[in-house]
């Protein structure tokens, strides 16, 4: 879907921001990175300060003995992704930010109120420079509606988690340059625009509590079944047991190893890539920004080769919408297995079969309930685009459901997303997309 | 506390079992281990089959740069710890097992219905030999009341978790040799006996749902405040935010390394120990058992040097009991920090200060509400004894509460223990002990 043709105050503001924050991102050879370098022993790609992140190697030793190795991003810190909310005239609004990230296709995307690193919030009491962080950290923070540690891409990140927060305020809040209050219904509608709402905003929206969801809804049988699904299955016990069954069947060992030991991967002057051309590359970029604290910097990025796909198949059963959820292994996840979209490509390993892929790719366009091309974390990934879809199974079509998939209600997913290690990052994005269909 | 002098049918049965399952456990040099050996490259202690567990090295890189190294037990599998429950005459009973474990001081302790490894449950459909496992695994299992993945000792285990389950049945269940239905109130009372209820049973009892707890209670103001604490604070949101604050402040990197690289530790013919004599040793034993599937085997064990202490300080505030909980870092925990007893010794590092230790050690005996010497996992640890205590803060005494401690209600703890990564193993044991005081 492309941007709506209709102009709105938001769109006018957005054009201004995109123009004001124009920036340049250029590929460079690794040798031109400032402060970054390959460690003499082991070859990990690190920053001289010991801060930020490192690119290391990962060895995956599955039960069947087929070992795999790959580079992986390691950042043993918890960041805060926070959206500040406030009611105006009875409508929940979110304070959103137009934010430049070097890996974004269009550089500027719509971001949460704060995306703060550990060093940001540890200096919040000493006059930190991260706008609005005081609402999320420390004794003076606002009313916390959501506060949960959630995982990020397990194929690209080692044990990465961020703190997803929604905080409510009642008093006046100054609106700084590049920030804007966006009504929640409008924000959810913006999810339908390609590459606009960034991953950090989507994961927080995926944790929205029931009370905040807009009440006024769409008409029609699909929307009615969708809303019914929210009210169904608050007890997710059986689904949790199924997830534990899948986790328990595996014996997965994953270990960080020196980047030099990732056999099959080759380091050239400007990229690290696999012999077989699969997966992703590690590259380096120079960023020239008008708007960030630092006007120019260099950094490595992980660049996926292909566009990804994240799709939920849904069906109506007795007037309630059900979502076909996958219990999916990803090597960098702390808990190894989390709930994921019905279909997620690229697969973890190149030779992995992807059940239901045909059903998604061959879906009748009338059954595609949500469809947008959205970006993954632009601070770490270069042009990482994923097509997010919600597709209704055609009337009368029955799907065989294997051990690693299960029909669940949205009520069950919302119950589980209150805690970490249940819904993976793409499942949370899709949950936000489902909210936009109410 | 020592065993009650009063004889009961349970005690008579227990004496029989202890006698029938007599076994011998003897220290041996590593060279006499069968099937176990040190890998030529890196020196990890492994079994030739690739099964069971390994003893590897761990490197801890805290934010302050003071690196530490130690051996650690690694077993990348999820076991099932399950208690089968059934009502007899309106009273919940638990099917318990008298089970020998080589590391137990007294070898036989009271264990859950099943303690199953992955290879046990993966062969359950092919005529597995683990009694009662069919109630916990597969399509035919009973009504699942509790099913949650919980951590174990983060100082000794690398990322170890087990599946804690409580399953209810209504139909007849044959009672096999070494098993016995024990009424839940009696089982909770048995927690007061030294070295009787094993760690695996305690962690499952720590996950007991509210509905199963015995209703008839003790009299007196303390018991009333205790029961009130169960009904208070179902919303544990603020406590979760505090736990996330503590987690977020740290930047901890922990990595598995070859056992040979644990500088400061020395491998002798029959033990691996630290230069400074602190902490624990790795030893090897030969076991001769009358009752286990295999009559004789050898294995490594981790042997702590000193008795541990795990104590909750509690206080009455407005007629409700509150528990002083610690957010504690342990290097082998997946999430690094979990809720722990007010005081837990030994500390993670030898030079760590232990707040409230003096308050526990100097407590007036009239304020000691629970006190028993209980064993940690006898399948992996040798004579690992911990003194578990619940101590009421003396009337009028106020305690200063630091950033890493917080007063919580039992209702909040029970809300959090429904999910993994919140309460550590000793906190769950102590929660079971609190249940015994109702």
UniProtKB/TrEMBL annotation, chains A, B:
UniProt GO molecular function: lyase activity
Task: Report the residue ranges that make up the dTDP-4-dehydro-6-deoxy-alpha-D-glucopyranose 2,3-dehydratase domain in this protein.
Answer: 9-208, 239-434
Which InterPro entries did the record assign? EvaA-like (IPR005212), EvaA-like_sf (IPR038153)
The name on file for this protein is ChlC3
What lineage does UniProt assign to this protein's organism?
Bacteria, Bacillati, Actinomycetota, Actinomycetes, Kitasatosporales
């Amino acid at each position: 879907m492309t941007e709506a043709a209709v102009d709105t105050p938001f769109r006018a503001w957005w054009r201004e921001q995109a123009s004001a924050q124009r920036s340049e991102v250029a590929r460079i050879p690794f040798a031109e990175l400032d402060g970054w370098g390959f460690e003499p022993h082991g070859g990990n790609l690190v920053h001289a300060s010991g801060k930020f992140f490192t690119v290391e190697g990962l060895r995956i030793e599955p039960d069947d003995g087929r070992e795999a190795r790959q580079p992986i991003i390691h950042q043993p810190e918890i960041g805060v992704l926070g959206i500040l909310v406030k009611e105006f005239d009875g409508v929940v609004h979110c304070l959103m930010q137009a934010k430049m990230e070097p890996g974004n296709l269009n550089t500027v995307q719509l971001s949460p109120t704060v995306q703060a690193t550990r060093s940001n919030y540890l200096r919040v009491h000493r006059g930190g420079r991260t706008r609005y962080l005081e609402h999320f950290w420390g004794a003076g923070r606002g009313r916390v509606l959501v506060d949960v540690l959630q995982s990020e891409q397990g194929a690209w990140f080692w044990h990465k988690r961020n703190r997803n927060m929604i905080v409510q305020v009642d008093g006046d809040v100054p609106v700084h340059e590049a920030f804007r209050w966006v009504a929640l219904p409008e924000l959810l509608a913006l999810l339908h625009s390609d590459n606009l709402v960034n991953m950090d905003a989507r994961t927080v929206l995926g944790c929205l509590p029931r009370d905040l969801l807009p009440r006024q809804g769409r008409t029609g049988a699909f929307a009615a079944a969708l809303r019914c699904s929210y009210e169904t299955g608050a007890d997710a016990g059986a689904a949790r047991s199924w997830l534990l069954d899948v986790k328990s069947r595996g014996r997965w060992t994953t270990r960080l190893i020196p980047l030099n030991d990732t056999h099959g991967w080759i380091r050239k002057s400007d990229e690290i890539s696999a012999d077989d051309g699969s997966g992703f590359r590690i590259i380096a970029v120079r960023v020239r920004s008008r708007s960030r604290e630092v006007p120019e910097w260099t950094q490595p990025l992980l660049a996926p080769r292909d566009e990804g796909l994240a799709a939920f198949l849904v069906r109506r059963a007795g007037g309630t919408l059900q979502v076909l959820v996958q219990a999916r292994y990803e090597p960098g996840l702390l808990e190894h297995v989390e709930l994921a979209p019905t279909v997620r490509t690229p697969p973890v390993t190149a030779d992995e079969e992807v059940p239901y892929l045909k059903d998604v790719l061959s879906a009748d366009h009338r059954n595609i309930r949500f469809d947008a091309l959205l970006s993954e974390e632009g601070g770490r990934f270069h042009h990482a685009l994923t097509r997010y879809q919600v597709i209704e199974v055609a009337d009368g079509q029955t799907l065989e459901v294997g051990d690693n998939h299960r029909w669940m209600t949205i009520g069950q997913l919302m119950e589980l997303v209150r805690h970490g290690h249940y819904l993976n990052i793409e499942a949370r994005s899709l949950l936000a997309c489902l909210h936009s269909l109410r």
